[in-house]
């Protein structure tokens, strides 16, 4: 039995740029909780002052791939549309894993729980 989730797209995180929130909110329901949570891990890692410039560039590239409409696999395809986005995000997470601190994980989890209410 699958559990349905609702997304509260009106939830604004005071420390998130409004543009990123709107873009992720637009795709969040189709992309799903896993993609959004991993994107939020990257988002909070890039906001961490300890994250170096090279890691920020990797993160910005992965987040841009998620929100921009041009993809290797079109996002509108049911079931497979976000697999390429998830792959890019997973590769970025692997590259910058050292900078995904427990604080970053906690922030991403809290934000994900606000977005996907049971």
TrEMBL record:
Pfam families from the UniProt entry: DUF1232
Transmembrane segments: none
Domain DUF1232: 56-90
Name of the protein: DUF1232 domain-containing protein
InterPro entries documented for this protein: DUF1232 (IPR010652), UCP031804 (IPR016983)
Organism per entry: Advenella mimigardefordensis (strain DSM 17166 / LMG 22922 / DPN7)
Gene Ontology cellular component list: endomembrane system
Subcellular location: Endomembrane system
Signal peptide range in chain numbering: none
Membrane topology listed for this record: Multi-pass membrane protein
Annotated keywords: Membrane, Transmembrane, Transmembrane helix
